């Protein structure tokens, strides 16, 4: 009987990193800013969300944890929930935006989170050369640009204050894009939300 030839397939794709006990999970919920912050994944594999309770995230990737947390919040306290979940990684992570190649490996990075009307939501480690400043508009371009229906005059920035609480500011991107206004610099942990235009019918 002939022996079937041995076919060597392509190497398996690397597994997505998953949350484990002891990890820090960064949560952003657009509809309820009081829920935003860093949560410890406890020994039981869950995080404790205020007023909601425990939700298990251990063994889940970021892409799997986001719908799990969203479903949990919809069941417990919110009618709408726009959720971003991130592990709090080293900003030198090799999978960061920019490729992490030899030319950029030594450049410090600032970790920000982008949501709303953009092509690529989630966490982005933006390269910031020493002595330089990367602005909000510049960071949005680096991370994939703006959505077709982005509301440019009401871009929201959530930034930690001196007390560790996120404060919201709103900027108008239009004069920045025209070169008529300064592009405010990004900071570690910023959440940038680009609202989508609402069309009436």
UniProtKB/TrEMBL annotation:
Superkingdom of the organism of origin: Bacteria
Record keyword rRNA-binding present: no
Keyword list, A-Z: Signal
Keyword Membrane: no
InterPro entries: Poly_export (IPR049712), Poly_export_N (IPR003715)
Gene3D superfamilies the UniProt entry points to: Outer membrane lipoprotein wza domain like, wza like domain
Ranges for domain Polysaccharide export protein N-terminal: 18-85
Identification of the protein by name: Polysaccharide export protein N-terminal domain-containing protein
Source species taxonomy: Bacteria, Pseudomonadati, Verrucomicrobiota, Verrucomicrobiia, Verrucomicrobiales
